[in-house]
Amino acid sequence: MHRRELLPWLGLAVRLTAAAIWLFAGITKLSDLDGFRAQVDAYQVLPHVLVSPFSYGLPLVEVAIGGYLLVGAMVRPTAILACVLMVIFLVAEAQAWARGLSIDCGCFGNGGAIGAAQTRYPQEIARDVGLLLCAVWLAIRPHSAYNLDGVLFPAAAPARPEPHEGHRA
Fold first, then answer.
1. Do 48 and 84 touch, CB atoms closer than 8 A?
2. Number of other CB atoms surrounding residue 37 within 10 Å
3. What is the C-alpha R_g of the chain?
4. 31-73 pLDDT, tens per residue?
């Protein structure tokens, strides 16, 4: 199998991995919206009036991103939105770390207590950079195996490579 033939499968793996993470993050937040609201408030970056709308809206956006990536619909715009959110998350984590705040990132709902004794900013930032790289990959290369975009918009899908001379299809 040539590199060009592997790329749609690599894209599928990246897309499904990102979809699973976004869905898990959104669903765990939805299961404890009040806890997530407290985590958002602990970052001390949003005006008080915006904490609740952000806290209650973000999990829905995360579930939507995960759902669209899961089925492979509107992959490029969804990946671009994911990139924007990941940059916002990275900035929020970096500023909290720089300010010496000891809080759970809130990435996966109420997974840890606010005021946690050991905040793991380097690991959280590294994980989020990895997810940002997945989103960048999908924004640049949105076509993958088994995606709804290829069914709905076949003219936009990349052409299948022709077999090499001496290679049977």
1. no
2. 17
3. 19
4. 999 999 999 999 989 999 999 999 999 999 999 999 999 999 9
State the DSSP code for 115: T
Closest CA to 144 of 133, 155, 131, 157: 157
Residue 48 and residue 41: Cα distance in Å, rounded? 8
Please say whether the beta carbons of 89 and 121 come within 8 A: no
pTM for this model (two decimals) = 0.82
Domain chopping of the chain, boundaries: 3-147
Question: Do 135 and 83 contact (CB within 8 A), yes or no?
Answer: yes
Q: Which of 5, 140, 26, 138 is nearest to 72 (CA)?
A: 138
- Greater confidence, 88 or 104? 88
